[in-house]
Amino acid sequence: MKNLCSFLPGIRSFISGAVILFVITFAMNAQGPISPTGLIGQKEIILVWDEGHDSTENVINYQVAGLITGYQGQPDLNQRFEFGDKKTESDGSYGDRQLAVAAGDFNGDGLSEYVAASMAANNRIQLRIPELADSTLTYSDSRTLLVGSRVDNKGDVHVLAGNFDDDGAEEFVVAYKDLDQLLHIELYDTGDGLMPVLKAQVADETLAGRNAHNGWGIHVHDLNRDGLDEVITGFRPESPGQGVFVKVYQLNGSTFDPKARELIDNNVLTANSETVTLAVTAGRFDLNGNDDIALAWGRIDSCDGRGCDDTFIYPLQIGDDEATAEVDDLEAITFNYYNRVLTNLSPNEVSPLNLKSGDLNGDGVDEVVLGGSFGAEIFAADSTFALISRNRTGNHSDEPGYAVDFLRVADIDGQAGDEVVIIDHFFSNEPGGEQWFTLTVYGFSPELNRDSVLARRSNFESISRGSGSRYKRHYALAAGDFNGDNFRIGEGKKYVKTDVIQPLVILNAPPTHFDIIDGEVYDINSCYNANLANCEHKATYFKADTETKMVNTQVYSNWGVSAGLKLGASAYGIGVEAHMKATYGEKFSKTQSMAKTVRISSQISASGDDLIYATVCDYEVWEYPVYAENNALNGYIVALVPTLTENRWFPSKERSATGYIPRHEVGNILSYTPY
What we know:
2 domains; 5-stranded antiparallel β-sheet; 1 helix
């Protein structure tokens, strides 16, 4: 038997057994062997902190950290982080020294930048946007801007990234309370140079709770799934003062239009009504309609520290108000009072409060993550849209006023599902003691009832506690794709081709010879012209149970990536090839196998021409676009999927056998080798 070269990668043939076996290893669906994905890839973490309230009160530190590639193989949790170079700036840290940071692709280059906000002198806010080097995740240049004029430096400041104009780059919102207790929401845009420019603003709510930390909440999310984000706030208005409200804003030119505004809870807030914490988030908490909102608010419990419920979380839905003539998906907030969840965070004192959302188990539905002095509690909506507690884990030992954001939910490890990141700050109460940070990443089981520590950097950036609590650090964190390795796989396009993909048997016709010399005809084998029908010189292939060896072949699917997509795993990230190997395996070895058995014809004769027995099949070529986080096309993944159609004999001179080049000429006996 002669064996020709394979035409597809991953195809091989060998002699063995008595059947032909085709193994096509792929799991097919409407999108072919590869499923389109959401955003894939590790996020990195940006940490921002000051150095205490003394001669260094104007010093703020910036540092990026991420999980190392193959972090699971490192047994020491402390060594699973890779930290970039720390940068220290004299950015100001005044008043109550609140810090905030957010990550987004502000210049549309496919990489995240971060914007940090700090309390500057003269009741202003300092913004800083560094130009990060993706190889080191640090910077040598950055843009700074002072914003606001009458900022209440005893209150919180928030900064959030979002997509408000669909120009391929993100914008960011700065929110703060002024000295008149007005809540200011300001939208900033940046161009390629990253210098912030004020684009829109609104200040139409006066807040209750003077000098309260975590006393109002804000979130950015695309609630109606139109591709543009809205702003969601949770707050207590000065009048009537007791109620907890949620309000939604939509960008309209240079301002934000108020949309839905709803009273959520009007309970009596006990004698400590000034001390109320609030937070909001949004996500896809079920599979119906628009995305949803969650509001959390907390107070000091009313039962003398016996562990009464002191924190309430409401799942809220937003949609059209059918009582109005206009159809508007942002018009009305509705909720079922009995779907709220009650929990206890901190007896006898108010707890810091964060509320985030994310898909922790990779099932396509977001969970609600509540952060407090205990750590994090995980909630999921059931079929009635009631929130059910699934897990409680982690640790955060600080009190309100030192971190606006101490908890984030993001894909830190590049695998299915998001993780919870918590930064904790320890401050010794002993004279001569120290203060330090601990950074922890938590992962969760599909059922959410089990968690694990993926990485933990303990007791880092340790310094003296100073002479009192005024030396206590303030800090913030965010997560973003700072090295640009995040991507998503789009929907595939299918092309179909039919070809001979595996010659199995070549049956050579025996040597015959026909010639005319000096007018004399020489038909040596009596196999030409009138003698053709009676030609006995032929080769016959037939099954002989005791002698004949049959042929097995295995046909595999395979995939490859275009040259521009060979984004190998860096110190901080996972590449496209690494994702494909982890998800599908080489030659789709991790997907379900299918097998089919085909037998060779029991007998065939070759006379006058060689015959080839081959696998002739259709194969599908699937082409999948790969996009960066900003939806820029980076390249393609190509998959080849063989589909068996038939196995047949055909003459070597047919078009199907154009790749067959024999070592002899049929009809020329002199061209055959002796054996």
